[in-house]
Design brief:
Mean pLDDT: 93
Largest sheet: 5 strands, parallel
Radius of gyration: 17 Å
CATH architecture: 3-Layer(aba) Sandwich
Strand order of the largest sheet: 2-3-1-4-5
Shape: globular
Distance between the termini: 18 Å
Helix content: 55-70%
CATH class: Alpha Beta
Number of domains: 1
Bound molecules: adenosine monophosphate
Strand content: 5-15%
Number of strands: 5
CATH superfamily: P-loop containing nucleotide triphosphate hydrolases
Low-confidence stretches: none
Length: 195
């Protein structure tokens, strides 16, 4: 199978984690989650982890230069060239998106599509309240969703301008949502083949 290169975007509670895992299973691409990479560095107590943990605990974003460097290093590994990637949690800012674009242009491996798994604020709030985790207070949920909104809205426009954005309805059962995602990807790959 051809290596697919994907970005997945979605609010917390949208089912992004579940769908990302299914997509990498289906396409054999490398799952690159910057949140997971940073948490692993924090757990390992590396210098990067120490630097990142302060920022993450405050609910802020790690600096663009730092995260761009980490992602570029990961994307340069052989498995990515062979199998493609699914970026999850990156890019988070237009500056990161530009860094990604530059990297992919240099390597001659363009992105196939950025998938926005769309679930409304009301629906994700209801889902998170229903799962009842202690950090899921209504106030906490609202703050995280507000941050996501302000971070991500410019990125959606950024991908849309480059005709790389597909919005996929995230409502409904897991299989139905997965089918919508794979149909969107298949549509992009067909367009690519025709070029
Ligand atoms: P996540 O699991 O994707 O929500 O990421 C957890 C935390 O890691 C975020 O709240 C940020 O502090 C940090 N982080 C993850 N990805 C990025 C990124 N692309 N840019 C900056 N900070 C990030």
């Amino acid at each position: 199978m051809a290596a697919v290169r994907l970005v997945i975007l979605g609010r917390q509670g949208s089912g992004k984690g579940t769908q990302a895992a299914r997509l990498v299973d289906a396409y054999g691409s490398v799952h690159i989650s910057t949140g997971d990479m940073l948490r692993a560095a924090v757990n390992a107590g590396t210098e990067l982890g120490l630097e990142a943990s302060v920022v993450m605990d405050a609910g802020d974003l790690v600096g663009d230069d730092l995260i761009n460097g980490i992602v570029a290093e990961r994307l340069a590994l052989d498995d990515v060239a062979a199998d493609g990637f699914l970026l999850d949690g990156y890019p988070r800012t237009p500056d990161q998106a530009t860094a990604l674009e530059d990297f992919l242009a240099e390597t001659g491996t363009p992105l196939d599509v950025a998938l926005n798994l769309d679930v409304s604020v009301d629906e994700v709030t209801a889902r998170m309240v229903a799962r009842g985790r202690t950090d899921d207070t209504e106030e906490g949920i609202r703050r995280r969703l507000d941050l996501y909104e302000s971070e991500t809205a410019p990125l959606l426009a950024w991908f849309a301008e480059r005709e790389l954005l597909d919005v996929v309805d995230g409502l409904g059962d897991e299989d139905a949502v997965f089918d919508r995602l794979t149909s969107a990807i298949a549509g992009r790959l067909r367009v690519g083949d025709a070029c």
